[in-house]
Design brief:
Elements (H helix, E strand, L loop, with lengths): L3 H12 L3 E6 L4 H7 L3 H5 L4 H7 L4 H8 L5 H15 L3 H14 L6 H14 L4 H9 L2 E6 L11 E6 L1 H4 L4 H11 L6 H17 L4 E4 L14 H9 L11 H21 L4 E3 L20 H6 L5 E3 L7 H10 L3 E3 L4 H4 L1 H14 L15 H25 L4 H19 L2 H4 L17
Parallel strand pairs: 1-2, 2-3, 3-4, 4-5, 5-6, 6-7
Helix pairs in contact: 1-19, 1-20, 4-6, 5-6, 7-19, 9-19, 11-12, 12-14, 13-14, 16-18, 18-19, 19-20
Length: 440
């Protein structure tokens, strides 16, 4: 065990870091104010809700818990038997941390949840985002995965997605892309021109990277496909009646388009974030999300930046080997600390002995509500501080090296790789709002 003095010194250094957050789905403050003060609808929008279902809650009861139009007492009665079953998970711990630190409530029984709902309503006003994200969480900037190029640069820089291009399998989806790109699409050439147009729009709007989340829908295996074979499939979307291609038929077309997206990321110097490993929700097929499926892409595109999400969990050792083998592969712990803190510490220990420190991204909140982002930031700092203190105690790092590692993994690597400081200047930002240094 590291000495208390060493642990305290490292934690103080880590608490002072202005975090660069690799991934958030957060509403803007304006959107949150518009949706009203539905605490249970927000706090069980994802993650902990999956544990509730895993513990036996029915989908109908989960919808009841989330439904702000139903009586709160009825919703809490539906929640409590299942909350009492998931109290041990890291997802639940994140909610406990948020309730305690942000609302002054120790979560235990139904009365405590009622107090959380009351406090949520009381704080649902302008300024709460700044207090939580800046003053409490110490998050300087987050990569915002909402597709909104107009996102507030005081908090965020935008990510964009082209999953709708990659996943196209019907004429209706193709027509939606045509409307989005404001052009007619009647050929594969026109489709790729639309892709170019959307990439150019993203770059002009200050997008810092591209996110791809297709591990929920299909296996992450993208072999090279000839243009001819892709065009034959693409043309089958057109003859009447309007055609929809099945999964087995459409996969080669999707594979071809994925390579087109990667090539455009490379041309525009945009890192590509790829969801791998555990999927949110219940009933998913983890085999689809094994990051080793991506090795042919890594071999083909060696001068790209592939930001591989969620530590590839549970394939985190495989991801470490790939990050060690390929200069293009950057392992990312977004979402991880609220999935498992023990696992995150084990993984970070392993990565620090296998992967160059300039490639590791140690925090991405990956929440759609700010209370979760706050709690995740706190848990990430705990994990990084614990691992680095143990590395120093074991003689693997000096204390100065540990402090340097923390700064790289929690801030500097992301700022550098995504060119955040330059691109943050593109888009809306209120410079009158002073950034603060209060920490978790």
């Amino acid at each position: 065990m590291p000495s208390k003095d060493l642990a305290a010194r490292l934690r103080a250094e880590i608490d002072a870091i202005q975090l660069a957050d690799s991934h958030e789905h957060l509403q803007t403050e304006e959107q949150r104010l518009e949706t009203g003060a539905n605490a249970l609808g927000n706090l069980f929008a994802h993650y902990a809700s999956s544990d509730l279902v895993s513990a036996g809650m029915t989908p109908a009861d989960l919808e009841l818990v989330r439904d702000g139009g139903k009586p709160l007492a009825k919703r809490l009665r539906a929640l409590m038997p299942h909350w009492s079953a998931i109290f041990n998970t890291s997802y639940a711990r994140a909610l406990k941390i948020a309730a305690r630190d942000l609302y002054g409530v120790e979560l235990d029984g139904q009365a405590s949840w009622k107090r959380v709902c009351d406090r949520f309503a009381e704080t649902n006003k302008p300024g709460w985002y700044r207090h939580v994200m800046k003053e409490m969480a110490g998050i300087d900037v987050s990569l915002h995965d909402t597709g909104n190029l107009e996102t507030d640069r005081f908090y965020f820089v935008p990510m964009v997605r082209f999953d709708n291009f990659i996943g196209v399998q019907s004429r209706a989806e193709l027509d939606a892309i045509a409307r989005q790109a404001d052009m007619s699409i009647h050929s594969l050439d026109a489709f790729l021109a639309a892709l170019d147009r959307q990439f150019e729009k993203a770059v002009a709007g200050g997008a810092v990277g591209v996110k791809m989340g297709y591990a929920y829908q299909r296996v992450l295996d993208f072999p090279k496909v000839t243009r001819h074979d892709a065009e034959v499939l693409f043309n089958r979307l057109f003859p009447p009646p309007v055609s929809t291609l099945g999964w087995a038929e459409v996969k080669p077309l999707q594979d071809f388009i994925m390579h087109q997206v990667v090539q455009r990321c490379k041309e525009h110097h945009l890192p590509l974030q790829i969801h791998t490993g555990i999927q949110e929700g219940n009933g998913n097929d983890i085999r689809n999300a094994n990051p080793t499926h991506l090795i042919p892409l890594f071999i083909e595109y060696r001068d790209m930046v592939f930001d591989i999400f969620h530590a590839g969990y549970p394939y985190s050792t495989e991801l470490a080997v790939m990050a060690k083998n390929f200069a293009s592969v950057y392992p990312d712990m977004s979402w991880m600390h609220v999935i498992t803190q023990y696992g995150s510490r084990r993984i970070l220990h392993e990565w620090l002995e296998t992967v160059p420190a300039n490639k590791i991204f140690a925090f991405g909140g990956d929440y759609c509500f700010i209370e979760g982002a706050y709690a995740h930031a706190k848990m990430a700092r705990e994990d990084v501080a614990t691992v680095l203190a143990e590395k120093v105690e074991w003689g693997h790092l000096t204390e100065a090296e540990a402090v340097r590692c923390a700064g790289m993994m929690l801030r500097d690597n992301l700022i550098r790789v995504y060119d955040v400081e330059k691109k943050r200047k593109i888009g809306p930002r209120s410079d009158a709002r002073k950034r603060t240094r209060k920490r978790c």
